[in-house]
């Protein structure tokens, strides 16, 4: 689909093409002083608001039904209600599922940019064409007024220190996105008396880094936030701000505040979609549904030759048009945490895997894998033989055991590794 079909980036498309935001990212890694992320208010239209949160497969089923009712949807986006990359696994799995089902649609992400950089290669590969980053100031002292805290690399930062870390990651992301051919929009929330005098300064900086457009958004004084006492910027003030940045970068002139579960034409959200999303959020799904890859416990990536408990890494494969494709090597969770280790393996490390090929497995990890919809194949021999069993449903001649049997007194599946 052509980029000109994006109603948020192309004013000519806003009355012709619809967009949908999938609320699969509930967690956030920063706290803005103007944000109150309520999920249950259908009468508000602003970022951070959603009537429900969906799991990736629920989002796919919802999208399939929604497109039957709104066939002119051209853009599928993830914008919260938290931040997509504070929920990176859910975000990326959702995008992969959507790409497989709707390869002709445009894919869009909106983020604060704090944890964006490590995922740029992956989102480009998935086909994301548009990314929005919210940058509210270039000055640490201003950022300290806007953000209560910033959580980065499992540590919480406050004040100017938090602002510096956030800004560094945001600015680093822009040229990396442009190098991938991704259209970059910068959102800036105009907070009167806080950052409203900095718009031109921000515009000059982001334009120099290659950003395509800047969207200045009037702050909404949400209840129960630090900034609820501030006055919303006037239309006149916003017009003057957009005129001031125009010599530096193309200002966006037709923006509408969008909920994290927005669906329909820009500024004309479809009410029926809001009712639908509530139904799909309670939909019970097969936990293994949507997983397309296969994990392997292997020493060298050629043979299935490790017991799961002794595997410090796993090899991940997927089926392609030309046979089987090696995806990557992933580290397994640290030992010594009992069932928690296996839960992390199933729900994080193997989040996109439908099966795992192992030389042996303990009772506890077997149970956890099965409960999470991951098929366990115990075998020895060539990895391709195991992949044939998963993808082509062929028998494995080298199969050692089809159900759990204890493989030794030193292996009890305690999460502490094999003795």
Describe this entry's structure for a reader.
The protein is of the alpha/beta class and 419 residues long. The protein folds into 2 domains: 3-281, TIM Barrel (Alpha-Beta Barrel), CATH 3.20.20.70; 293-401, Dinitrogenase iron-molybdenum cofactor biosynthesis domain (Nucleotidyltransferase, domain 5, 2-Layer Sandwich), CATH 3.30.420. The protein has helices at 56-69, 88-101, 120-126, 140-146, 159-179, 199-209, 235-245, 271-281, 339-349, 363-371, 383-391; strands spanning 18-21, 30-32, 73-78, 106-111, 128-134, 147-152, 155-157, 183-190, 213-218, 250-251, 263-265, 268-269, 293-296, 303-304, 313-320, 323-331, 353-358, 375-379, 381-382, 399-401. The strands form 4 sheets. A 9-stranded mixed β-sheet has the order 10-9-8-5-4-3-1-11-12. Strands 16-15-13-17-18-20 form a 6-stranded mixed β-sheet. The longest helix has 21 residues, at 159-179. It is elongated and about 75 Å long. It starts with 17 loop residues before the first strand and ends in an 18-residue tail after the last strand. The model is unreliable at 39-46 and 399-410 (pLDDT under 50).
